[in-house]
Each structure stands twice: as structure tokens, then as C-alpha cells.
Design brief:
The chain has about 200 residues and is an alpha+beta fold. Helix content is about 20%, strand content about 25%. The protein is built from 4 helices and 10 strands, in the order ββββββαβββαβαα.
Length: about 200
Amino acid sequence: AAAVGSSAGGERGGNGAATDSTAAQAGGDVPAAAAAPSSRDVSGEGDVATGQARVVDGDTLEIHGRTIRMHGIDAPESSQTCRKPGGEVWRCGQAASFALADRIGRRTVSCAGTESDRYGRLLAVCRAGDEDLSAWMVQAGQAMAFVRYSRDYVGQEASAKAAGAGIWSGDFIAPWDWRKGGRLDRGTVEAVEAPK
């Protein structure tokens, strides 16, 4: 794969589009390894939000009016597009949102964290039952490990990349570069290419 335009992700803004739990474009099950707990176990300490989650985008949830930024991951933005190997453009940001909404379904989500970002969102490890939702999103290829802030999901990303799962099935701009204006059609940053 080609190098990402910048290896360190930037913070993201708070403008996500809400997503209903509808048919995901992601498809497929993810191995149980994705459900492994994060090495940053903040359960039982700090701020906890529990309840029915509304998916704002592929890495942001809302529970009882509280906006939560999922720990350690960065998903394509809601309006972001990616390119499949044959050149077909697909709405990978929307697919990430749908995948997360479908994975959660009607299950109760619990998010635990100890700090907020500059937008006031709780930075948290979110679980549906025992499943770490950030780990699942990265393993499914619907998000990248946000290594600027955490290395907790690097193993899941390597597995997704090797399997050509989700965004790793074609070319895409890393979400942090996309937010800075990088686009596949403009060549403003180097695209992450599908593994050969």
C-alpha cells in the first residue's frame, strides 16, 4: 500500500450526519478478535454514558444527548468517498455509519472515558455487551486506528488491511487527510492504495 498523506491524524470537527440503523453496505462478519477489550480499560472510572445509542457517524455516538467520540479510531467522514479496485466510487463514510448502526442494532451501549476533546465530546471506549465497538470497526475495515492518539487498534487494522476489508478493498484518503482537503480526484495527498 502507498504511504498515507500524513501519518499523524488530526482532530475532527463535530459536524456528523445522523444515521438510522439501516442495511449496511459493509457486509460480512468480523472475527471474535475484534471484540477483545481495549488496552485502555476505563470501565468503572471517569465519565460513563449508557443507553440506546444514535450513530452520528462512523466514530461518533450520541447517548441521552451526550456526544461521544469513540476512542482510538478515525472513520471516513459521512460525505467521504472511496474507490473500489475497478474504479467505482462508493460512499465509504456513509457505509461506516451504517455498519456501526447495524452492529449496535437495539443493544444498549456503554461508553466510559476520562476526558473530553476540544469540542466537548467524551472520548470513550464504547461497548455493546462485551464487544469493543472501536475494535470491531477497525477489524471490519470501516475505520482506521488513530495512532496519533492510541495504538490500541493497530493489530485490528493490520488484519483488516491483509483481508482487504471495507476501505482496504480499494483506494481511499485517510480521514485526517480528507478533513484537511485531500481528495482522491485532486491528488492533493497520496491515496492509501489497496494491498497488492
